[in-house]
Amino acid sequence: MASIKEGASGGGAAKPVAQRLLATATRLFAEQGYDRTSVQEIVDAAGVTKGALYHYFGSKEDLLHEVYGRVLRLQQERLDRFADADAPVEQRLRDAAADVVVTTIENLDDTKIFFRSMHHLSPEKDKQVRAERRRYHERFRALVEEGQHTGVFSADVPADLVVDYHFGSVHHLGTWYREDGPLSPQQVADHLAGLLLRALRP
Amino acid sequence: MASIKEGASGGGAAKPVAQRLLATATRLFAEQGYDRTSVQEIVDAAGVTKGALYHYFGSKEDLLHEVYGRVLRLQQERLDRFADADAPVEQRLRDAAADVVVTTIENLDDTKIFFRSMHHLSPEKDKQVRAERRRYHERFRALVEEGQHTGVFSADVPADLVVDYHFGSVHHLGTWYREDGPLSPQQVADHLAGLLLRALRP
DNA sequence: TGGGACATACCGACTGGTTAGTCTGCCCCT
DNA sequence: AGGGGCAGACTAACCAGTCGGTATGTCCCA
């Protein structure tokens, strides 16, 4: 329901207008912020007009919500994959923690928007997004708790706080990570996952 | 130059208008975001009119910049105090790391604004704020490096990344910390500083 | 084969409302 | 009597969303 109204375009043209609009909006939102980006700017940059945008999307906010949906679905799916793997819990947590870093860096525009503009959503959509985020948080927390119960992680720190601790660093990536910096996404991920696992050593 | 045009008010009235405006703006910016808060709202909530606001501040952006200046000065001063203390480096880092958490929670409105609205500043002011943040970052990094050189901290993770790691969690506080939650500011600070120090164990 | 009926995809001028900032002037203290 | 401190109406710009219109395509029945 939250997905784009099929671009149809029978034969298979160059680039569906709806997707071009979403990609353009994502870039502009990340660069200038949601409120600072006008609908006119988006359609100009995408080479269409408002008529096209409002043909595919119900509102400007729908564009934002669409970005959120994409990120959430992607991250949740990947987390589930790693958490369900057949490996010791410390390995599963390490893999999941590192993966979310890589995925975040690879979609840095989306995640910048995600964390900066969350509070721009209408109460209704905000509630939905929060619910999905909570599911994600809880899945991650379950990994930490499992390790604490089996004794491979230190138990004298609340699991919730540990999760927020790690996601703080993930959240923060958009602020400091530069593509032309000295570290590859995978290197950053390995370092951050390493720090987390060491912080959890009993 | 970046400070408020003296409220004068010779004798010492109830509450200087300039400070009331700044406090009101801070609250509203934190609640609704900078762009979503109109100047009219601010002056209404402060019980004055636009004439008063533009008498004391050059622009809406000046209000934001003023909030930034306050936070930056406060945090820098406190960091310097802890970093200069006469104690082993692991103790100084722990104290500094915990203190910034407590200070952040105690000024959660300011820091929410700080991290959310940074990119709303004009290039000129943005440059200035960045420079001050960098000084702060470097002071903190020096502590990590000192410990790495003297061997009390593991050296196989870049010091810059460690600093961003910790400040990620600080940055993130505004997202999850609730006053009516189970943890006091000091408890959160102790946990986060503990995690950092354990992550750095050789 | 042709043509009417209808739908999809998009255009772009327009509207109603909001906004930051200005300006003139009053009031009160010194 | 002069100026700081403020009021409040005003302006010029901008913005999300609307709406009537057009061009192109598809389906169906004769």
TrEMBL record, chains A, B:
* DNA-binding region location: 38-57
The residue ranges of the HTH tetR-type domain are: 15-75
One Pfam match, by short name? Answer: TetR_C_24
Which PANTHER family does the record match to this protein?
A: HTH-TYPE TRANSCRIPTIONAL REGULATOR RUTR, HTH-TYPE TRANSCRIPTIONAL REPRESSOR KSTR2
The organism named in the record is Streptomyces lunalinharesii
> Does the record carry Transport as a key word?
no
Task: Name the domain of life.
Answer: Bacteria
Record keywords: DNA-binding, Repressor, Transcription, Transcription regulation
- Identification of the protein by name: TetR/AcrR family transcriptional regulator
